[in-house]
Design goal:
The chain has 103 residues and is an alpha+beta fold. It is 55% helix and 14% strand. The longest helix is centred in the last third of the chain and has 19 residues.
């Protein structure tokens, strides 16, 4: 049986939420403060902090406190494990496509 890491499970769980996916897309353009991330959603800082905490636990995002501001950025190599898994899934999809209609 294939063993998946808890890390991958946390990452995919974190990506299940559209707000967290949008935050990751935004951080792909560069670092941002929690205030900057919360603004487009009309969300409280407390609400955004919860999303960021889950992304940190999934090791997709890193934060750093600078003075009174917490700055967020994508974690280096954050998506490496997921990328490997998705490549395997893509190979599976190709097999399914080739064998479509066979019984």
């Amino acid at each position: 049986m294939v063993q998946y890491s808890t890390q991958d499970d946390r990452a995919f769980a974190a990506l299940a939420d559209p707000t967290r996916r949008a935050v990751l897309e935004r951080l792909g353009a560069g670092s941002a403060t929690i205030t900057e991330l919360a603004e487009p959603f009309g969300m409280s800082l407390t609400g955004m902090k919860k999303h960021i905490r889950l992304l940190e636990e999934a090791q997709l995002v890193r934060t750093e406190k600078v003075g009174r501001v917490r700055r967020c950025r994508l974690a280096p190599y954050a998506f490496k494990g997921m990328s490997t898994w998705l490549q395997r899934l893509d190979r599976f999809a190709q097999v399914v496509e080739r064998t479509k209609g066979e019984r």
